[in-house]
Amino acid sequence: MLVLNADPVFQDRALAILDENASLEIQVVRSLSETVSALLGENFDGLIIEGESHLAFEQATNMRQHFPSLRILCLLLDRREHEVSTVANEQNIELLSMPRGDSSLRANLNRFVRSLDLHAGTAAAEGIDPCHSLIGNLNQFSAAEILQMSCLSQRSGRFTFKSGRGNSEIYLQQGSVRHAVFGSLEGEAAVAEIFRWRQGRFYFEEGIISQEQTVNRPWAHLLIDNLQKLDETLELVSV
Amino acid sequence: MRDKKLETKLRLVTLQLEGWKKLHDLITYGLDKAKPIISSEQERQFTEIRSNLLQETEYVLRELNMVAEVSGKAMSVLQRGVSVRGVRDLTNDEIRRLETDWNGVFTKLGLTQGQLKARRKELAEQSAFDYYLTQVRGRVFRRPATAH
């Protein structure tokens, strides 16, 4: 779990509660650039952003643009949840106004942590299947590189990506991306998510074609758009 | 078994060490003559880290019972290092003093972090019953002799 808190020494109610959970690994960061840098490491199931409602919510929406599948909880210190609740719903950001009592805060944080457990661990046990025609590590070849190679050689088949975040699939047909799925994300949003992965494994199975078509743009357009988005994300690290 | 106070101390010491490490990175950069350009972004980061340390050091050291040993050295580093550019302009003597004081703070915090982690490991291997039994035993044996 990653916690963005600008003042973790003096504003530590939530941190103290999260500390109680022995099975939870927490990293605390103080700024947005540190958050992006940590998230690009891909070791986090969820992000808690703690702060005044205006700033915390702005940071949460910013993170949502760059990490579409990340579970985000925005912990509002000034209890102005109602001002941002509509947008938060649209952006799939959970809101929690800092309760006065610790028991209520504990219950809400535990609920969020449990919900992460339900989403995590979807990665199936690895095994080399004879029908995998290409297998590799994402820390050696990025998703962009292997998709580029496969599209240029007009491949048709299914890429399966497995990481700590779960499994995702991208279906190619004659060198074009036809369908992509990651959890509840489909189409270009799922492709964008996979582009950011820097850890995990990938497998390619030749000849498996999806009946569904959720991506309609040519590969070159997807590549340029996603690389541009990735550059924008990386720019945040240097801010 | 998990001790809340110990976890808080460990979190505080980890955050402090993180701040002191970042400060050291920027001081080292400032002192490196081969890297002549100091950007405004680096100066901003330095001020941010220095401001956090100035606010938090005294409080954290008090929580860790280390004020007497470390506070003077910590304040000396924070007062001498006013900016990355300022560090570059320090005399050799002042630089040596800065590095010695930084090392004193870092070493003490690092040792404390290690001790706290070791204590956490011990506690993790203990059941709640064992823990309370040890506490009770400690109290019994520490009881002073009654005067006759």
Which terms summarize this structure?
heterodimer, A: 239 residues, alpha/beta, Rossmann fold, 2 domains, five-stranded parallel beta sheet, 8 helices, 38% helix, B: 148 residues, mainly alpha, 6 helices, 81% helix
Structural overview:
The complex is a heterodimer of chains A (239) and B (148). Helices cover 38% and strands 25% of the residues of chain A. About 2% of the residues of chain A have low confidence. The radius of gyration of chain A is 19 Å and the shape is elongated. Chain A has 239 residues and is α/β, with parallel strands linked by helices. Chain A folds into 2 domains: 118 residues, Response regulator (Rossmann fold, 3-Layer(aba) Sandwich); 107 residues, no CATH class. By secondary structure, chain B is mainly alpha-helical. Chain B has one domain. Chain B contains 6 helices and no strands. In chain B, helix 2 runs antiparallel to helix 3. The longest helix of chain B has 34 residues. Chain B is elongated. Chains A and B meet through helix 1 of A and helix 1 and helix 2 of B.
Mass-distribution shape of chain B: elongated
Helix content of chain B: over 70%
Give the assembly state of these chains: heterodimer
CATH class of the largest domain in chain A: Alpha Beta
Uncertain segments of chain B: none
Measured as a percent range, the helix fraction of chain A is 25-40%
Task: Report the major sheet of chain A.
Answer: 6 strands, antiparallel
**Largest interface: which pair?**
A-B, 13 and 15 residues
**Integer-rounded radius of gyration of chain A:** 19 Å
Range of strand content of chain B:
under 5%
Counted beta strands of chain B = 0
- Helical stretch tally of chain B: 6
Q: How would you name the CATH homologous superfamily of the largest domain in chain A?
A: Response regulator
Major sheet description of chain B: none
Distance between the termini of chain A: 23 Å
What is the string of helix and strand elements of chain B?
Answer: HHHHHH
Distance linking N and C termini of chain B: 41 Å
User: If you average the pLDDT of chain B, what whole number results?
Assistant: 89
Taking strands numbered 1, 2, ... along the chain, how are they ordered across the largest sheet of chain A?
6-11-7-8-9-10
Structural domains of chain A: how many? 2
CATH-level-2 architecture of the largest domain in chain A: 3-Layer(aba) Sandwich
